[in-house]
Structure formats: C-alpha cells, structure tokens
Amino acid sequence: MTKTFTQDDVIRYVYEETSEEENVLIEEALMAEPTLMGFFMDALELRSLMDKISRTPRPSTVETILSYSTNHPLSQLRNPTGVA
C-alpha cells in the first residue's frame, strides 16, 4: 500500500518532526509529486522568513505586566510586607 502524504506531513518534515523512515518516504513523494514539492519549497521559504522576524513588546506593555504582577494578590501572599 502506497502512503499518500499531506501538506501536514511536509510541514512536519520541514520542522524535522518526522522519523528517519518517514523522511525517506516523504522525500520520495516530493520527487514524484510536483505539487507537493512546490508546497515544500514554499514552506521552506516561509520558515526562513519567519526565523528572521524579531518582535518586542512596547515598553508600556512591559510596565503594565510588571505593575500587575507586583500588585497581584498572590504576590502579596508570598511577600506580605511588600518589601522586595
């Protein structure tokens, strides 16, 4: 029985979440199915582009989180005096 590979399988392959046995079968499928190979190439490009994205929160967001954390009731239970 021949295994039919899906785009999900290709994504797992791109992110190295497949076994050695699956790798061989997926590579064979990629060579035999031009559509699947096209999806594979697009997925590789997207992964490369996503690896270059760097996101940082606004300083006001960080301050809001820190303020909430400091004033959270559970924080007061751990440090009842309020002294750091």
Summarize the SSE layout with pairings:
Blueprint lengths: L6 H8 L5 H13 L1 H18 L7 H13 L1 H6 L6
Helix pairs in contact: 1-3, 2-3
Describe this structure as you would to a colleague:
With 84 residues, the protein is mainly α. It has a domain at 7-51. Helix content is 69%, strand content 0%. α1 (7-14) crosses α3 (34-51) and α2 crosses α3. The protein is elongated and about 60 Å long. The protein starts with 6 loop residues before the first helix and ends in a 6-residue tail after the last helix. The mean pLDDT is 88.
The residue-averaged pLDDT reads 88
Task: Describe the sheet with the most strands.
Answer: none
* Computed structural class: mainly alpha
- What is the chains' assembly state? single chain
Instruction: Indicate the proportion of strand residues.
Output: under 5%
Rounded to an integer, what's the Rg over CA atoms?
24 Å
Tell me the distance between the termini.
65 Å
Order of helices and strands: HHHHH
The total count of helices amounts to 5
Shape estimate: elongated
Please estimate the helix content.
55-70%
Tally of strands: 0
Which residue ranges are poorly predicted, with pLDDT under 50 across at least 5 consecutive positions?
Answer: none
Key features of this structure:
84 residues; mainly alpha; 5 helices; 69% helix
